[in-house]
Amino acid sequence: MAMTMHVDIVSAEESIFSGTVEELYAPGEMGELGIFPRHTQLVTRLKPGEVRVKREGQSELELYFVSGGILEVQPHVVTVLADTAVRAKDLDEAAALEAKKQAEEALADKKADFDYAKAQTELAEAVAQLRTIQKIRKQGGQ
Amino acid sequence: MAGAKEIRTQIKSIQNTQKITKAMEMVAASKMRRAQDRMAATKPYAEKMRNVIGHLAMAHPEYKHPFLIEREAKRVGFIIVSSDRGLCGGLNINLFKQAVLAMKEWQQKGVEIDLVLIGQKASQFFKRMGGNVLGQVTHLGDRPHLSDLIGSVKVMLDGYTEGRIDRLFLVENEFVNTMTQKPRVSTLLPIAASGEEELKHHWDYIYEPDAQDVLDGLLMRYVESQVYQSVVENVACEMAARMIAMKSATDNAGELIGDLKLVYNKARQAAITQEISEIVSGAAAV
């Protein structure tokens, strides 16, 4: 019987794969890695690419796309911590700027931020006032 | 008979409101279940990560990442996770109360505060309150994605690495159960050294490219996943709170309708009695 190891592929949002596996191939940052059971402990960053696993007793490889992440190898347990989106320094930077910009806009742009609840109470007040004025007028007219 | 028609329209309008609150309750209930599933799905990632970080930190005591070092606090950061929409009871208000309390404590010590806001409600609240807002994300929807959060979290992480802030807190709602959601302030940075378990058999990972690079990547993702988790948890909290709020609204509407029906019937009966007595006395006069 072939030796096996347990593989988990998880991302921050969900668990992608979990099962018993004979072989695993992953796109490491320093080059493609092939992991078999009883591999020595290893931690590496992954490049965007596909992780291929061979399930126990099957001859074909299953493919899972990862957009980068981290691979942790223990002799009988392999964990792929997958990213949910392609990460790059300049991309992260752009995202940070976007968040800052949103905050500034929200602070500066007082008119655009329409507080519906507040507007509604104001409208209700105005309507009530109008109604009272009309009532007073009617009484005055009679 | 004058009152009866008005009462009837009032009952109609309350019935319509009741239909809406009932529908919202059911929608919230089903969304809550899905949010809870997602909450469970995010757990293994953070757990695995904590294991690796714990091991790395222990195997390499000489390398101290800034995220692991505790500094004297001169300026602190808060990430506040709220919902986008209202109609969910006191969920957001309770959270903001807790946040303001924690912030006051720091302010009394002469410490300044930076904010990153997640969710429309926080943005509205802290605009009125004032505060130094560095970044914000809104409109995450019921299925938030980690990629939407990266930017705003990075603002804080950069601030921490560059020494602009010395602590980072996360203000979030904790999902206890459907009936209870507790606001909670937790420390994100510095990351507390995890369990003091001894390194029994001495082994270490092979690192590619090297330990520091891997640790850097890990820690950043760890903090992000913590924030993401709390955002997902907040969705579950929001739905649970809305479900409860809408349920009590529906119940109240039912009560109101019952009371009004009683009044309506009395008015109707009075009108009929009056009519009969008029006819009878009319007939007697002839």
Summarize the entry for a quick read:
The complex is a heterodimer of chains A (142) and B (286). Chain A has 142 residues and is an alpha+beta fold. In chain A, 32% of the residues lie in helices and 42% in strands.
Task: Write up what this structure looks like.
The complex is a heterodimer of chains A (142) and B (286). With 142 residues, chain A is α+β, with helices and mostly antiparallel strands. Chain A contains two helices and six strands, in the order E-E-E-E-E-E-H-H. The termini of chain A are far apart. The mean pLDDT of chain B is 88. Chain B has helices at 2-59, 91-108, 120-129, 146-161, 211-285, and strands at residues 75-81, 112-118, 132-137, 167-175, 181-189, 206-208. Chain B is of the alpha/beta class. In chain B, helix 1 packs antiparallel against helix 5 and helix 4 (146-161) crosses helix 5. The longest helix of chain B is centred in the C-terminal third of the chain and has 75 residues, at 211-285.
Low-confidence stretches of chain B: none
Structural class call of chain B reads alpha/beta
> Using only CA atoms, what is the Rg of chain A?
30 Å
CATH class of the largest domain in chain A: Mainly Beta
What percent of the residues of chain B sit in helical stretches (DSSP H or I)?
55-70%
β-strand percent of chain A reads 35-45%
Order of helices and strands of chain A: EEEEEEHH
Order of helices and strands of chain B: HEHEHEHEEEH
